[in-house]
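We both want to read discrete structure tokens more fluently, so let's practise on a single case. Would you supply a protein for us yourself, any chain you care to pick? Would you write everything just below, so we can both look at the same thing?
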Amino acid sequence: MPRSKRFFIPGYTWHITHRCHNNQFLLKYNHDKTRWMDLLHRAKKRFQLSIFNYTVTSNHIHLLVVDTGYNKPMAKAIHLVAGRTAWEYNQRKNRKGAYWEDRYHATAIETEKHLLDCMVYIDLNMVRAGVVNHPAEWKFCGYQEISGLKKRNLLIDKNGLFYYLGLQDPRNLEPFYKAIINEKILQRNLNRESRWTEAIAVGSQEFTERIKEELGIKARYRAIGSHQNIYQLKEDKSVFWTPKISN
């Protein structure tokens, strides 16, 4: 089977999704989810990552991170965390074989509104799955830090997050984000949105066109489409939205 393609450009905010091999529940125990977070904390310090959100489920992870482009910090961090998680698990279980799917998927996310929407989507993962009623009940996600519930071994770059979200006062981040999450849950607006895990880029028309241009030949036959005024550069043209025809 050919390796899945990875689209990556340094200098952007990326939503990373990485699934366990064959969707196995290799992260089902709290010990394994906690260990993944511990390793991410180590990678954050070593590679000076700016992390905006994350969640660990039983069979996959989400990570929202800024890549500065200097010395490939994001790729190195993911390699460290994924590699160490797999090695430790296989050693403990006397197991052989792949732990993760061949490659993680990376989606470039534009800042402010699109970044906020992606953050909310990540934190509502286990609510959508019916495991919890609110992300405050799931201790393996960024909501714990953004809302002030978690005080130690922090991963989230709140200062960077405040800046990229375009907020006026850093003190507004916690109540603002709590209100957004609560509103989504109250409205039962919990549908899966494939753009966050399948697109190459999500944002404005200008943003997605810029990503496509920077990808060059890798994105030559990829279409830009819009749905409800959200643009996305897709990996496959055969999608439900109408492609944008550009000159």
Observations:
- Confidence is low (pLDDT under 50) at residues 1-5, 237-247.
